[in-house]
Write a structure and sequence with these properties.
Layout: H1 3-31, H2 35-39, H3 49-54, H4 62-87, H5 95-103, H6 113-120, H7 124-153, H8 160-176, E1 180-185, E2 191-193, H9 196-220, H10 225-245, H11 251-274
Antiparallel strand pairs: 1-2
């Protein structure tokens, strides 16, 4: 993929995330009043690393979940702008997949289909479609960051389109067959889906391999910058896990801090690696 083609993908990502942000803002006006009544219907708390520590101490607040969704879309929008600014004239095979990871957060806006359904009594088909798209975007995002790690180790290919297609097809195969209960939802506005343990295992394994890949790249390419990129990937995965599962106000600042710091480390250090190439 040429530099101009890659930059076009960046620009499309900025436009897409902006549209998702605009949709979030418009929907917010409609759904704020229904959160109080929805909180009385919560029967299942969301999972996640941070939730295991705070779920038993703090009550779920759907307004906090709404802010987490809004911040996720804001993260997508501003991080892609940040990456475009840093890498507009700098070639890096990894950065395309970092952008795809960031862009996946935009589709968290679809979680608002649940409160919107309380306002307009939408058919369950809409919730099913939204849930599958969210599930796809989340695993497409982590597989994209995993692919960035593979490129960092030294995977040689000039056809990034084929790699992107492989990631897309793999994610579709995994997510399309997952059973989703459109009548049950947890405190982070996610529909309940099957194979939860399997997906947690896949996510944990992908996280470990990605982290190790960057550390191997630091050794094989004799560049300590990849150590910081590996540390950034740890912060990014932790921030992502917290932000996507948080149902209290406590998770919002910690998730944002980890996610922003991790993304900053990954992008600035990658830029330093490729700046003079």
């Amino acid at each position: 993929m040429t530099l101009s083609e890659r930059n076009l993908v960046f620009k499309l990502g900025i436009v897409f995330s902006f549209l998702c942000l605009l949709i979030c803002i418009i929907i917010s006006i409609k759904v704020f009043p229904v959160y109080a009544s929805m909180e009385t219907e919560i029967t299942r708390r969301s999972g996640g690393i941070f939730q295991a520590l705070t779920g038993k101490l703090l009550d779920a607040k759907l307004l906090a979940v709404h802010c987490c969704i809004l911040v996720s879309v804001l993260y997508s929008f501003f991080s892609i702008i940040f990456i475009y600014y840093f890498f507009e004239k700098t070639q890096s095979p990894e950065i395309l997949f970092v952008v795809l990871f960031a862009a996946s957060f935009s589709l968290e806006a679809l979680r608002l289909i649940l409160p919107l359904g309380w306002v307009y009594e939408l058919p369950s088909l809409y919730r099913l479609m939204a849930s599958r798209i969210i599930l796809f975007s989340r695993y497409f995002g982590i597989f994209s960051l995993f692919t960035a790690g593979v490129f960092a180790v030294g995977f040689k290919t000039q056809n990034q389109r084929n790699v992107t297609i492989i990631v897309t097809v793999t994610t579709l195969i995994i997510t399309l067959g997952v059973p989703i209960d459109t009548q049950a939802w947890d405190s982070s506005l996610n529909m309940i889906n099957g194979y939860t343990s399997m997906f947690k295992l896949i996510e944990a394994g992908t996280f470990l391999i990605t982290m190790i890949s960057f550390f191997i790249a630091a050794w094989s390419r004799s560049s300590h910058e990849f150590v910081f990129i590996g540390a950034g990937s740890i912060l990014t995965f932790l921030g992502r896990n917290i932000l996507l599962n948080a149902d209290t106000w406590a998770g919002l600042p910690i998730g944002v801090l980890f996610l922003a710091a991790g993304t900053w480390l990954i992008c600035t250090k990658l830029h330093k690696v490729y700046l003079w190439l």
